[in-house]
Design goal:
The structure is a homodimer. With about 160 residues, chain A is mainly alpha-helical. Chain A has five helices and two strands; from the N terminus they run H-H-H-H-E-E-H. Chain A has one domain (about 15-155): Up-down Bundle (Four Helix Bundle (Hemerythrin (Met), subunit A)). Chain A has helices at about 15-35, 40-45, 55-75, 90-110, 130-155, and strands at about 120, 125-130. Chain A has a two-stranded antiparallel ribbon. In chain A, strand 1 (about 120) and strand 2 (about 125-130) form a beta hairpin. The interface of A and B includes residues 9 and 22 of A. Chains A, B: Keywords: Metal-binding. Chains A, B: GO terms for molecular function: metal ion binding.
Chain lengths: ~160, ~160
């Protein structure tokens, strides 16, 4: 029997633990999309004047850990808008991907639930709440990965299933 | 001064009202991507053997309102895996898009926060929680819309800015 000393816990739509697992699940799928690209085409293949998938992936790497680190620690982050040529191999980029996986988990632990509705300037310039910024990071990855799927299909390569994370 | 009769409200990472606004913001962007397609290419243009954007949009329409209606009301929904040819104009599809916008708002109002962590079988077959199913609906739209961006770029058409909702 409930007593007044034990208030009922409020229902939660989505917890921070569930959101970071959701994000990492998407990142795990993106990792397999990177793996599916042949080494050369990862850096060179393009449709309609768009960036090769490697450059999109470098953008994602430039957003995830630096953006979350800035949110969690206050350390300013910058976005490189120049999209420079990548002087790395696919396997080195996959290593950066895995390092980012660890970094996200580390910074996520530093983020109390009270912070998610706080207004911030992500990368010193994009105003929003912490949660809207993080959702943007995730959505931007899904968006570019979807473009990577078209590149793979156009190269005659079957991409990994979208629903497998 | 706080008293024990006024318990402090628990911090919320993301509210249901914010999530549906986020979803509708994405749907507003997808609407502008549909508008950006020339009538003919919307139904015929394809890369790498993928579906024309119109068929992807019909999939999104087949998921959003029927899927959320099933969640909110218990009325069973089915997914048409056949992807039949579309016997509609772009303007008729935009009308369905706007009708779905209203339907989502309607069904969302019927969904109390206590339901989001409930386990369900979406479309009678995909097991997950209500929240994971809804996130899947949104993510699937971002994924296919990203593919629509490649189609547009390949057609020499500038897509709407990703960050404008």
């Amino acid at each position: 029997m409930k007593t007044t000393e034990q208030p009922q816990k409020e229902a939660v739509m989505l917890s921070p633990e569930q959101l970071v697992a959701h994000w990492q699940g998407h990142r795990n799928l993106t990792r397999r999309v990177i793996e599916a690209f042949p080494e050369k085409e990862f850096f060179t293949f393009s449709i309609g004047g768009m960036r090769p998938f490697s450059i999109m992936v470098m953008e994602l790497l430039g957003i995830a850990a630096p953006g979350l680190c800035e949110i969690a620690t206050g350390k300013p982050a910058t976005i490189d808008e120049e999209h420079p040529a990548v002087d790395l191999t696919k396997s080195q980029i996959l290593e950066l991907w895995d390092k980012t996986t660890e970094d996200i988990n580390l910074y996520w632990e530093m983020l109390p639930i009270e912070r998610f509705q706080e207004t911030i300037l992500a990368f010193g310039q994009y105003e929003g709440t912490v949660i809207s910024s993080i959702l943007y990071f995730v959505d931007n990855e899904i968006h570019h990965r979807g473009q990577g799927y078209v590149y793979l299909r156009s190269l005659g390569i079957e991409p990994p299933a979208f629903w497998e994370r």
